[in-house]
C-alpha cells in the first residue's frame, strides 16, 4: 500500500474530525467515502475540460474562443466499492475526450482486475456476475466479462512467443484433456505443457499447445518453436509416454536424454494386478528401479518375470519395450535421479489446472481454453518461490557430466 504524505494525512484528519456516523454512513453504498470518490472523479473531470478549453468556468477569456462548456451528462460507473453516479462535463464542439473516465467507459479499472481474478480461479461467467453483484452491487453483462477476459489473449500470445533461456537442464512434458466445441460437436482436446528447470533450479513454464492428436509431426512443431525462441539445449527430457515425443525431441535436440516416468510405468503395471497381490508386485517392481546400476536393474526385471510373468503377462513386455528410455536415470547420481525419475513436478501443475477447469463443461473455442489455463498457470507459478530440492548438488553433477554444454 502507498504511504500517505503528511499533507494527505492532514486532509483526511480534517475531513473526518467531526464525523460521528456509523460504519454504513462512512463506507456504505451512499456513504461519505463513496461521495468522496464521486467528488474526486468530478473534480478531475472539471480539471480536464478546463485544460481542454484553456480557460476557467465563467472566465471572459472564453468569449469568441469557438468552443465552450455545454452542461453535464449523468453517468453510472461501476467500481470495486459499488456503482456511483457522476456528472461528466460536455463542450459544444463535442471534442472533449476525458481520460479519468473515458467515453463509453462504465467501470473503473479496478473492477477489470477483479473480473480477471475471478476468471483465473475457474469461475464461470454466471458465477462472476453473481459475485460482482453480491460483493460490489455491480450489474455486469456476460459480454462485458468476455470482453474484459479477452484482453488477456494478447498477453497470452506475447508470453507464448517470448524468448527463452539458451539452456534448460531438465524439461518435463505432460498433457491434460479438455472438452471444446468444434464445428458444432464437442471434442476432447489435448493441452500439452512444457515445464523447464532453469540453471538456477527454478521452475518456468515454457509454453502450452493445443492439439486434437499427438504424434511425432505435432511434437516436431513444438520443439522447432522452442528452438526458434532460443532454447538450444536440454540435458534430460522427462515424459510420460507421450506418443511421438521421444522421436521428435531426439530429432531437434539429438544430445538430449529422454527419461520415461518411472512412477507412471509402475502405475500402469499395477493396473493389471489383483488387489491381494499389489503389495508383492509393487515390491518386485521397486527392486528394479531402486537397483544401483542398469545391469542390476535388468537382473531384478528377470527375477520379476520369473515370479510374476506367467500370472501377469502384460507387465514384463511393457518394461521390455520401454527399457532403453526407462534406464537413463541410472547414469546419474542420487541428487539427479530424485529429480528426473518422475514427472511429478508437472503433474502437480496439471492437478491445479484440472481444479480450475472442473465443472466447466465444454469450452466455446480454443481461445477460451488458452486464456483460462494461462491465467490459472500464472496463479500457480506464484508459489514457485524456491529452487527445486537438492539443486546445488545436481548442478555440480551436470557440470561434471556435460562440461561445455553447461553455460558459465
TrEMBL record:
Asked if the record carries the keyword DNA-binding, the reply is yes
Keyword list, A-Z: DNA recombination, DNA-binding, Transposable element, Transposition
Free-text function comment from the UniProt entry: Required for the transposition of the insertion element.
Where is the stretch described as Disordered? Answer: 52-96
> Which organism was this protein described from?
Chromatocurvus halotolerans
NCBIfam families annotated for this entry?
Answer: transpos_IS256
Q: What is this protein called?
A: Mutator family transposase
Family per record:
Belongs to the transposase mutator family.
From the Swiss-Prot or TrEMBL record, what is one GO molecular function term? DNA binding
Instruction: Give a single Pfam family match.
Output: Transposase_mut
Xref: InterPro entries: Transposase_mutator (IPR001207)
One example of a Gene Ontology biological process annotation: DNA transposition
Amino acid at each position: 500500500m502507498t504511504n500517505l504524505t503528511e499533507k494527505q494525512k492532514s486532509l483526511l484528519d480534517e475531513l473526518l474530525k467531526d464525523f460521528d456516523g456509523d460504519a454504513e454512513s462512512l463506507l456504505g453504498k451512499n456513504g461519505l467515502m463513496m461521495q468522496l470518490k464521486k467528488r474526486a472523479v468530478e473534480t478531475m473531470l472539471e480539471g480536464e475540460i478546463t485544460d481542454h478549453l484553456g480557460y476557467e468556468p465563467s472566465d471572459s477569456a472564453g468569449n469568441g474562443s469557438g468552443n465552450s462548456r455545454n452542461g453535464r451528462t449523468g453517468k453510472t460507473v461501476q467500481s470495486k466499492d459499488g456503482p456511483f453516479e457522476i456528472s461528466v462535463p460536455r463542450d459544444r464542439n463535442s471534442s472533449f475526450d476525458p481520460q479519468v473516465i473515458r467515453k463509453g467507459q462504465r467501470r473503473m479499472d479496478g473492477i477489470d482486475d477483479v473480473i480477471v481474478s475471478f476468471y483465473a480461479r475457474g469461475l464461470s461467467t454466471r458465477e462472476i456476475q453473481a459475485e460482482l453483484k453480491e460483493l460490489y452491487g455491480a450489474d455486469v453483462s456476460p459480454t462485458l466479462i468476455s470482453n474484459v477476459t479477452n484482453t488477456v489473449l494478447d498477453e497470452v500470445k506475447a508470453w507464448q512467443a517470448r524468448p527463452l533461456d539458451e539452456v534448460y537442464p531438465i524439461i518435463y512434458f505432460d498433457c491434460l484433456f479438455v472438452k471444446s466445441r468444434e464445428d458444432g460437436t464437442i471434442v476432447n482436446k489435448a493441452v500439452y505443457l512444457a515445464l523447464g528447470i532453469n540453471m538456477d533450479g527454478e521452475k518456468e513454464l515454457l509454453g502450452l499447445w493445443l492439439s486434437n492428436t499427438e504424434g511425432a509431426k505435432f511434437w516436431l512443431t513444438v520443439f522447432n518453436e522452442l528452438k526458434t525462441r532460443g532454447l538450444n539445449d536440454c540435458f534430460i527430457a522427462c515424459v510420460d509416454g507421450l506418443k511421438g515425443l521421444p522421436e521428435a525431441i531426439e530429432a531437434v535436440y539429438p544430445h538430449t536424454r529422454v527419461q520415461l516416468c518411472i512412477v507412471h510405468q509402475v502405475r500402469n503395471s499395477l493396473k493389471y494386478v489383483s488387489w491381494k497381490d499389489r503389495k508383492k508386485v509393487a515390491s518386485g517392481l521397486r527392486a528394479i528401479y531402486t537397483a544401483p546400476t542398469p545391469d542390476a536393474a535388468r537382473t531384478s526385471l528377470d527375477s520379476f518375470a520369473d515370479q510374476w510373468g506367467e500370472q501377469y503377462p502384460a507387465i514384463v513386455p511393457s518394461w521390455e519395450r520401454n527399457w532403453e528410455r526407462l534406464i537413463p536415470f541410472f547414469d546419474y547420481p542420487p541428487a539427479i535421479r530424485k529429480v528426473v525419475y518422475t514427472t511429478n513436478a508437472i503433474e502437480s501443475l496439471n492437478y491445479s489446472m484440472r481444479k480450475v477447469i472442473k465443472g466447466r463443461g465444454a469450452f466455446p473455442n480454443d481461445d477460451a481454453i488458452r486464456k483460462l489455463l494461462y491465467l490459472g498457470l500464472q496463479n500457480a507459478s506464484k508459489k514457485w518461490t524456491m529452487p527445486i530440492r537438492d539443486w546445488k548438488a545436481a548442478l555440480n553433477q551436470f557440470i561434471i557430466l556435460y562440461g561445455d554444454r553447461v553455460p558459465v
